[in-house]
Amino acid sequence: MEHRTLGNAGLRVAPIGLGCMGMSFAYGGADEATSLRVLQRAVELGVTLIDTAEVYGPYANEELVGRALKQLRSKVNIATKFGFNILPHGQGVARMAGVDSRPEHIVQAVDGSLSRLGIDCIDLLYQHRVDPAVPVEEVVGVMAELVRAGKVRHLGLSEVSAATVRRAHAVHPIAAVQSEYSLWSRDVEAEVLPVCRELGIGFVPYSPLGRGFLTGQLTSGAALAPDDYRHSLPRFQPQAMAANAHLVAELQRLAAARGVTAAQLALAWLLAQGDDLVPIPGARSLAHLEENVAAAQIALSASELAAIGAAIAPAAVQGARYPDVELAMVGL
Predict the structure, then answer these.
(1) In the annotation, is 229 catalytic?
(2) pTM exceeds 0.85 for this model
């Protein structure tokens, strides 16, 4: 796969990365042996950006990634994130008690991530969510100190406003901004993505397949595990899912005409939005991993891109992408 560059400091990665959250968190978990194989197969296929976070599990996903890639460290760039207050007890999202980017917490979190991942240096470190109590300049200042200490190579931000990107980048170069971006979530196109391009910052779309919905394979909430996080999301409520399914049906029609899957068409559309974008679709099976990676080989014409973009017009999508309490934490 032809590589893409994130930021101006030489972080080059394959055009499609691997988001690992679903292997340990939010979507009902996955078989560990299968997850280990998916991670290793991703590297075999040329994937070089592996995305995790301390809160996924919590902690379990970093440990999983560390075990899977122990012998493959030189072939990958590992990204992880800090920024939540993680309680010592509880399960999954119940252990997330707001945000915490106090300087002492950042240092502690990074040391913990390094230990769990079994590495000496994090390739790309994100602040997971903005902490309103700590100015981003102070946060990035601490992150920059970690770069100088050799514990981190590149810095990133997740789900931030254009203004925050500017403020952060003025303190230390930001290599990448990560936010939800897909056919049905295009808010970043208005301000955040243009600012990233102005400043030479790469963009990493998470949930590029709409948390699985854009694949066309998820038609009812009944198919989700009882503890699946998507049960709490407005777009995955029965009425919204039914309305949104009509949009995905058109995407499936376009995909069938092209001889690819809806997931591949959605990823190919996203990749065509700019060579500074590196989406990180999740995969919990070898089949889905290989399907996603193959999307990087699909070239779309201008007319095809227009038709795909029109098939799932954001204004027609029913439901917000997060509940109100979580929406309050994005775009700060």
Answers:
(1) no
(2) yes
